[in-house]
Amino acid sequence: MKADDSKSYDDINVTPMVDLYLVLLLIFIIMTTAGVQGVKVDLPRGGAAPALGGPKSKAITVNNEGKIFLDTVPVTLDQLEQNLNAHKTKNPNFPVVVRGDRGTQYQGIMDVLDVLGRVGVTQIGLATQPPK
After folding, report:
1. Residue 70 pLDDT greater than 70, yes or no
2. Could you write out the DSSP letters of every residue in the chain?
3. Which residues contact 118 (CB under 8 A, 6 or more apart)?
4. Residue 2 pLDDT grade (very low, low, confident, very high; cuts 50, 70, 90)
5. Dihedral (Cα; 20, 24, 29, 32), 10-degree rounding
6. Taking every pair of C-alpha atoms in the chain, what is the biggest distance, in angstroms?
7. Could you read off the pLDDT of 88-125 as tens digits, one per residue?
8. CATH domain 58-126 topology
9. Partners of residue 75 on adjacent β-strands
10. In percent, how much of the chain has pLDDT > 90?
11. From residue 16, how far is each of 25, 29, 72, 123, 124 by CA, in Å?
């Protein structure tokens, strides 16, 4: 017998185990990010000045009776689309704030959001009150 044959192996090769851990980590990261769903909107960024307050921004209000107001002027959905298209030709990137009364039917807000999608508005904010 040679002396080399009786040599014990005290070292453990951990490379396959590290590879397995990295693959499991990658699968975990992919699965957790795939589970996050929601509506993607490009909201205005905050800065020193109010992001949505200014002459370029528009406010759309839906009251509890379902009436729609562009800034303070009552409009129909067709008039809203025409006014927003006219404003978009002058200023292609303008933010819009959608305000809805607590008693407003959800369909009225969805109709307004549908018009904003047809016009191509990407900066949409939904106004809420802070909790008391």
Report:
1. yes
2. --TTTT--------HHHHHHHHHHHHHHHHHHHHT-------PPPP-SS-SS-STT-EEEEE-TT--EEETTEEE-HHHHHHHHHHHHHH-SS--EEEEE-TT--HHHHHHHHHHHHHHT---EEE--PPP-
3. 81
4. low
5. 180
6. 101
7. 888 888 888 888 877 778 888 899 999 999 998 888 88
8. Nucleotidyltransferase; domain 5 (3.30.420)
9. 68
10. 13
11. 14, 20, 67, 48, 49
Contacts of residue 24, defined as CB under 8 A and 6 or more positions apart, other chains included, come to none
Q: Binning pLDDT at 50, 70 and 90, where does residue 132 land?
A: low
Q: Pairing relation of β-strands 58-62 and 68-70?
A: antiparallel
- The reported pLDDT for the residue numbered 124 is 87
Contact 80, 112 (CB under 8 A): yes
Map out the domains of the chain as residue ranges.
58-126
User: What is the distance of C-alpha 36 from the center of its chain?
Assistant: 11
The CA distance from 81 to 68, in Å, is 12
Q: How far apart are CA 16 and CA 65, in angstroms?
A: 66
Extract the tokens encoding 95.
């933010």
Point out which residues pair with 28 in neighbouring strands: none
Q: pTM of the predicted model, to two decimals?
A: 0.56
